[in-house]
Amino acid sequence: MSYNSQLRSAILQFSRVTASNERTAIGYLKSSNWNVEAAANLYFSSNNGSRSRASSDKTELESLFEQFRDSSDQPNTMTTEGAIRFMEEIGVELDEATVLVIAELLQAPVIGVFEKDKFVEGWSSINAMNLETIRSKIPILRSNLDNDTDFKKVYKYTFNLALPPGQRSLPLEIAIYYWCLLLKDRFKDHIDDWISFLENKDRNSITRDTWNCMYEFVQLAKNDPGLASYDVDGAWPSILDDFVRHQRSKA
Amino acid sequence: MATNPPNREDLKATWAFLEAGIERIMRDLNSGMDMSTYMNVYTAVHNFCTSQRPIAQPPNLQQSAGVHRGAHLLGEDLYNKLIEYLTKHLTEIKEGSQAHSDEALIEYYINEWERYTVAAKFINHLFRYLNRHWVKREMDEGKKNIYDVYTLHLVRWRLDLFNHVQKHVMAGVLQLIEKERNGQTIETTMVKSIVTSFVSLGLDENDSTKSTLDVYRQFFEMPFLAATSQYYQIESKQFVAENSVVEYMKKAEARLAEEQNRVHLYLHPDITGPLMKTCEKVLIQEHAGLLREEFQILLDNDRQGDLQRMYNLLSRIPDGLDPLRTKFEAHVRRAGLAAVDKIADDGGDNLEPKVYVDALLEVHTQYQGLVLTAFKGEAEFVRSLDNACREFVNRNKVCKSASTKSPELLAKYADSLLRKSAKSAEESDLENKLTAIMTVFKYVEDKDVFQKFYSKMLAKRLVNFTSASDDAETSMIGKLKEACGFEYTNKLQRMFQDMQISKDLNDAYKVWLEDKPQDDSSATAVDFSCQVLGTSFWPLNPPGTPFNIPEVIIKTYSKFVDFYNEKHTGRKLTWLWHLCKGDLKANFCKNAKVPYTFQVSTYQMAILLLFNDRLIISYDDIEKNVALSQEYLVPSLAIFLKAKVLTISPATAKPGPGTTFTLNTDFKSKKIRVNLNMAVRAEQKQEVEETHKTIEEDRKLLMQSAIVRIMKARKVMKHVVLVQETIAQIKSRFTPKIPDIKKCIDILLEKEYLERLDGERLGYLA
Question: Where in the cell is it found (chain B) (predicted)?
Fold first, then answer.
């Protein structure tokens, strides 16, 4: 994500005052409408002078990480089983999209794997320094999915998460699984048609381009459920053209 | 007449003297005027103007100015006297005119006009001194309504006579012209004189030496055009009600010519434009709808003359032809489609290429002829013709199964012309037919398909030496190059080059062989020649079956390989056995005095050579020895059975595992040379399918490379623009569909040649 120079200097200023990272800075600045002073006030009141405790908090997160790391795993890496236990612990169902929000927050390399430094960095960026605060943040993370900007971030990151190693595009069934997870609300008018359309097509993978463009398509469908404004000669990937043609021919 | 000029200072006397002279000139010029009288009048004017009467000089004026004013005032007296005289004279003429009407009035008017203007010239001359001094000075001072004496005559005519009588005169003129339009003969010089007189009355207000057409336009042109419009309105309405449209067109055409002619005969040329416009409006514009309705009927009945007439008429009015072009285009398209429908029903699946192409050409020729003769080859009609032809050439009943059928059949037709055959066409005739092919080719949208089939068939002609004429081949390629550019025919030309190079190569090989020690006679026992063809230029595929090279030719084979490798190191030779052939001398036939020669494919040769050792061989043995796959082996054997070179056992079986073959020593044939090398029908069909398949693949590559080329040059581009540009680049080969282009963009995105940027833009990734 890129910011213009004005916003950038606000981020810099905020980070300098609060000694926080960029992510935290953006979060606070956003919630105070990019007013640095207000953001700093918010930061300090909510953290209650946590600055001095920063390093001890990190150790708390690190030990939390170790709790869920399997001893047979690579050092500094938490794998699926640990991750599942962790999700249960913090009250996140495995089949809810919030998993992906967390995976994006912790910059998981693939689904079900967390790296220690990213884990610590991710949680501290939203000031969740221990299990308890992490739990308290879950509703906020969950609601992130309703916000277009955050959703888009998570949506695009999901392609990386889901991509099998060494591949360029997503196997169809995996793509469908994640689409269901992410789009069941946003795309509810069309998701069933979309999936049955995909299943009837002899195409067994989804390219990154298609995945990314799907976000824009969902936005379009949200505002225009009849898809009348869709231009089949426009800059869409052809699979979406085919889908829209298919939908129109049914209508 | 007074012999001497009167006292120079006496106006009354002077004018009396002058008036007598003027009256003489006006009324009785014909009886002449002697020189001295004339000179005396002239002198009287001069004297009067130069007299220095002190009277009438205002006392307060300075002396020097007084001289001037004096002459001035004197001139003015004379001028006014002249006006007075003219008005009186013209009033008399006006009164005289009331006794006449119609033609008599015109005649009267003309006579008076002519007398008056001639006299005016003389009088002008007599008053030259006045003109030169007094009039000139007045005009120089910028006084309006002062004219030289001749012009004064015209001005007075206009004011004192013309304004009163012109209506009556014009009524007469119009009546006269109407008479002529109704077919009577009239004295056209009368109208002409009237026109001339009207034109003469036009004086430029600012410069009396110049004339304008104002008077003429107002008093002649306007009423004349109004009368014309009314006349033809009535006439055409009546005519149309009673006659056919075709008759009406003839009538209108005749009327227009007649009016045009009228201008030449007795009207002022200035009227041509307005008159024609008036006639066109009434005669054509107002009936344009009716004419256009007839257009389809004329087309249906191929009435070329009437179509031409209609074109000529409607081309005279603004936007008159547009509806015709639309109708014409639709008509030609229908005609083309109908022609194709007819032969498609007759021909079915095995439609003769010639029949198809001829049907297309016939329609084109017919309507091209029509455009050239009836529509004068007008560019817009040519465009309509082209549009229609493009439609029915690319989208007709035959093309329904596959849009690429037109170029395929066209290429096949070209092949049938260029291939050696019994009914080969004459050279000049052939050239015409090739030109005709290009006519259809121009309309073909899938030019790449034509290219594909053409090069396939050219390759076959060259490899099999069945091309009828090198000149014709060159001519055809020249035409294609002219139409589509160098790149289109590049490979075709390379194929010819390879043929030439191969000829030289074979010669070189023979020389090379002679220099070699003859260790084994079998190397030269076979008469051998070959073509070495560049893989990337020839649309030939490597053989689709394994093959054991027969013992007899293996030496030759390896010698040539040695030779070639010696000559060009690092080049790989692929032997296209399925395209090779040879002659076998058959010495086994009991009944033949002269041994038969079998013309066979290399595969067949390998099979037959096995029978040198044994007379009966099983299918499995043959298969083992020649190693051919079944789809090649079975048809080859089938040909031998059909020609009775071999017999099969069991007798009714089809060639296949478990059967055995016996050499037929009783073989008989009417010909010494027996051609057994026949293409298998199934093979041909498969080839066509394959060609179509490669077309699809080639198109994808062509589109992708076009996209990459464009993006490489532009780096960043809007999606829509990229698609348009790609279409523009590829259009000359085929018409790409947008979804196909988009698929190619998808592929390039996936392969990371391109990336998607915001705002529907794409970026090029090096």
Answer: Cytoplasm
